[in-house]
Amino acid sequence: MVDIVGEKTMSLNPVKISITSLVVSILTLLVSLTGLMFGPALIPRVQAYSQARAAHERQVLEYLRQAAVFLDGLPLFIAETWAWGPGVPNYSPPTFPDPNAAIAKEMPAVKAAVDEALQLYYTHSQKQGVSYYSKEEALSRLSDNRHRFWQATEECVKAEWPWHWKSKMEELRKLTIPDTERDRIRNLKRTRQ
Q: What is 59-77 written as a DSSP string?
């Protein structure tokens, strides 16, 4: 549209204005209804959910950390104490994963791998350092178990932290038993003699 002076002026389309007004009115109505429905309880509900979610994530990560550290040193422990005889020394990672932890039940594949590794440790200790027919068989089974653990852990971590699961997996894979425990295990045979 051109006015008398020859400059272009903006034309106002009444249909566009009506549609825009209608959309704004509907959004305002939705916000108002949401406020009426949830009222002042909405913020506490969101906060409670956020706190529960954070606590759940901490529990999952702590269980996975304990399991990763436990599984890191177990092959060395079994290799160093194979056919030990009576009084197999204890394996002492900072903490053992709790087989009865409620959070573990939410990760059945991880729990199964951890339970199998714990059972291997208990059998190894109770049978004087001979959990299978040969050390190679015991270490092979443990290697398979560790592989299943890491596969199940990756699936769990992907589900729990879909946006940054890779960094969580890197963090978990870097976990090891403390150097003091690793050195203690390596020196068991020397201290035995």
A: HHHHHHHHHHHHHHHHHHH
| Cβ proximity of 87 and 125 under 8 Å | no
Task: Tell me how far apart the alpha carbons of residues 80 and 23 are, in angstroms, rounded to a whole number.
Answer: 73
Segment 5-59, tens digit of pLDDT:
555 555 556 666 677 777 888 888 887 777 666 666 666 777 787 888 888 899 9
Tell which wins on pLDDT, 113 or 19: 113
Question: In sequence order, what are the beta bridge partners of 168?
Answer: none
Inter-helix orientation angle 42-80/14-38, to 10°: 70
Decide: 73 and 177 in contact? Cβ < 8 Å.
yes
CA distance 37 to 31: 10
Is the sign of the CA dihedral 86, 179, 120, 118 positive or negative? positive
- CB distance 121 to 99 below 8 Å: no
